[in-house]
């Protein structure tokens, strides 16, 4: 499936809902050939070169049986996009976005063949159109973007903290400790071997789940694997919370980590199994610790 091209992406709280789907609207054509239907008539400042735009969109295509099918939906994944509307990566849609103002709703129509070239998905009808229904949430300069991202990060920290606290309370876990970074952890079995330091090579078995759903997304113990994860502590090979947690353990020990999204993958979803801004739980067994070579 096509990933809508963006220059920057981050999670924003979605307070607006798309209106209009382009059906029955007056369709106009820009000089570059892009067809569009605007569903609002708002006044405001259009974006300038270098500005950023936050928006929600739904992407619709026609399948072989002639049905109008939803292909992508930012509301479903819970995060709008942050883009630079004048980015060449957006193709002809860039010109259309540069005509929008904050609060606008618009539908853009692109030929499926122009959009995908020779890589049209086999389930889409050749010669049909792809429709993007968009709601413009905000337009901002670099300073505005930085302020928004800072605010969003602070709000997410508070949300994650509450999620972890509630999960621990619901499970009756009273021995969890919190580090200064916001990592919560329990030592489930005290190890007797060395405690790893930055630069040490370790091997660890782990099982990762989402919080609060407890849906497993990965495990070194899954059938066909069975080998512990090997990595070097404290050098950025692992997500920050996992790295920090392992260095709180001793060889032979077991622990459970509860990672706020800021210590996990944050706004960047690494896979469909881990949505953006996910709180994660890891059950970890530290199998071995190999000290870093002496300098």
Any idea what the shape is? elongated
Helix-strand makeup class: alpha+beta
Approximately how much beta-strand content do the residues carry? 25-35%
Count of all domains: 2
Give the termini distance in whole angstroms: 50 Å
Give the helices and strands, then pairings.
Blueprint: E1 28-29, E2 35-38, E3 52-62, E4 68-73, H1 74-77, E5 81-83, H2 93-97, E6 105-111, H3 112-116, E7 129-140, H4 142-170, E8 177-178, E9 184-189, E10 201-211, E11 216-219, E12 229-232, H5 240-246, E13 254-259, E14 279-290
Antiparallel strand pairs: 1-2, 2-6, 3-4, 3-5, 3-7, 6-7, 8-9, 9-13, 10-11, 10-12, 10-14, 13-14
Characterise this structure.
The structure is a single chain. It contains five helices and 14 strands. The chain is of the alpha+beta class and 295 residues long. It has two domains: 28-140, Chitinase A, domain 3 (Roll); 157-290, Chitinase A, domain 3, CATH 3.10.50. Strands 1, 2, 3, 4, 5, 6 and 7 form a seven-stranded antiparallel beta sheet that branches. Strand 3 (52-62) and strand 4 form a beta hairpin. The longest helix has 29 residues, at 142-170.
């Amino acid at each position: 499936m096509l990933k809508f091209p963006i220059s920057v992406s981050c999670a924003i709280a979605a307070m607006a809902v798309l209106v209009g789907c382009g059906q029955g609207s007056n369709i106009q054509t820009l000089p570059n050939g892009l067809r569009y239907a605007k569903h609002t008539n708002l006044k405001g400042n259009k974006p300038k070169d270098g500005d950023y735009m936050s928006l929600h969109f739904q992407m619709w295509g026609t399948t072989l049986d002639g049905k109008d099918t939803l292909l992508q939906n930012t509301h479903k994944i819970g995060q709008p996009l942050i883009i630079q509307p004048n980015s060449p990566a957006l193709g002809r849609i860039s010109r259309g976005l540069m005509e929008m103002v904050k609060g606008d709703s618009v539908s853009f129509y692109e030929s499926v063949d122009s959009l995908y070239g020779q890589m049209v998905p086999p389930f889409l009808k050749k010669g049909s159109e792809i429709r993007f229904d968009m709601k413009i949430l905000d337009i901002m300069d670099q300073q505005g973007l930085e302020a928004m991202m800072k605010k969003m990060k602070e709000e997410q920290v508070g949300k994650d903290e509450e999620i972890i606290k509630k999960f621990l309370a619901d499970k009756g876990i009273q021995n969890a400790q919190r580090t200064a970074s916001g990592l919560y952890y329990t030592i489930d079995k005290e190890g007797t071997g060395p405690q790893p330091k930055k630069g040490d090579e370790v091997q660890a078995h782990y099982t990762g789940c989402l919080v609060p759903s407890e849906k497993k997304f990965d495990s070194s113990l899954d059938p066909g694997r069975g080998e512990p994860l090997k990595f070097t502590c404290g050098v950025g090979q692992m997500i920050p919370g996992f790295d920090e947690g392992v260095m709180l353990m001793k060889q032979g020990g077991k622990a459970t980590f509860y990672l706020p999204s800021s210590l996990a993958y944050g706004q960047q979803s690494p896979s469909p199994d881990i949505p953006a801004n996910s709180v994660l739980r890891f059950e970890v067994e530290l199998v071995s610790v190999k000290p870093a070579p002496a300098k």
